Amino acid sequence: MDPSGGCPHAANARLLSRGAVTEVLLPGGVEGMAVLGHAALKEFLAHPDVAKDARHFAALQAGGIPDGWPLRTFATVQGMTTADGADHRRLRALVSKAFTTRRVEELRPHVEALTASLLDGLDRAATSGGGVADLRTHFALPLPMGVICELLGVDAGHHDRLHHLSNRVVATDIGPEEAVAANREMVEVLSGVAAARAEKPGDDLTSALIAAREEDGDRLGPHELIGTLMLTIIAGHETTLNLITNAVRALCTHRDQLALVRSGEASWADVVEETLRWDSPVSYFPFRYPTRDLMLEGTVIPKGTPVLAGYSAAGRDRKAHGHDADRFDITRTAGNRHLSLGHGAHFCMGAPLARMESTVALAQLFARFPDLDLAVPEAQLPRHASFVGNSVRALPVRLHG
Q1: Which residues contact 192 (CB under 8 A, 6 or more apart)?
Q2: Which domains, and CATH codes, for the chain?
Q3: Predicted TM-score of the model (pTM)
Q4: What is the C-alpha radius of gyration for the chain, rounded to an integer number of angstroms?
Q5: Smallest Cα–Cα separation from 245: which of 360, 392, 367?
């Protein structure tokens, strides 16, 4: 895997042409595998003999993974994404109340108001920038970060730092010292957040998690609390940030599809679902581990192998999405078959919130700025330095024609 990331789709197509499951070499020379095909990935994500707990990661348990390995946090952080069975159900139950359909709808007025306010700021940034503003910095980032931190009870003063540290945690091109430092600082910041909420509880998820721990000390350990906060913040803003960014890029370079929404022939929800399929906000997500040698699509994945879930590859698998899988088409009848939000027990808990935020953001953005377009050719947009996250690092746009 190229630790510098970049656009994954050409490489995905080459890999898919060789099979739905492939061996990969992870940073540091660690041997792993990736599941790329849609059908294979769907089976793998829900397979009873596939685990998330790192005690099944053979190389880690054998002492072959150093502390500064850039992907180590994905394996070792304590929370829902590294738990199985009863532990996973326990942790998920503690957090799930914040992401029910009803709770998400209660948040809609807040999301709409925050979106409108951020569009004002985007307009001001463009005015002071000669008509050009970075939509990612001024809009796509602060919207989901503001919403998830509101849910968690995290003060606004932490937002920028938490985003920077999240970027470092999911990066695949950083050195050992930087990786260790980013994780240590993230724990320090979130420990401070937890201490503040313990001293002054509020109507937020962090306070609720702390209360659950205090009521029954066995329900949520201190490391699980910090791990849960870390995972919720990273997943709660990075993926939606990429989703909004990728959707705007797609619409700006496919004006015919934008016209379909404006004419009422398609909806903003259609845009979101097709973006999730066509340009998944997460390209390759670490890790799952077979608990026995596992045969998948004719390929054996050895027990204890770290496996990447290839969401961006599966989204353009022609066997699942047809000969035109590379085409962005919001009227695609099979568009809802993507796996970009997961499948099985670990399906993304925040999916309703991500969908709501993204549809509100896109609807208001293009209603306010109907002539919005990219300020530079798409090929010149700087890509993420990670094969985990899939997007660009900046999205300069002109708001007015």
Answers
A1: none
A2: 9-398 (1.10.630.10)
A3: 0.94
A4: 21
A5: 392
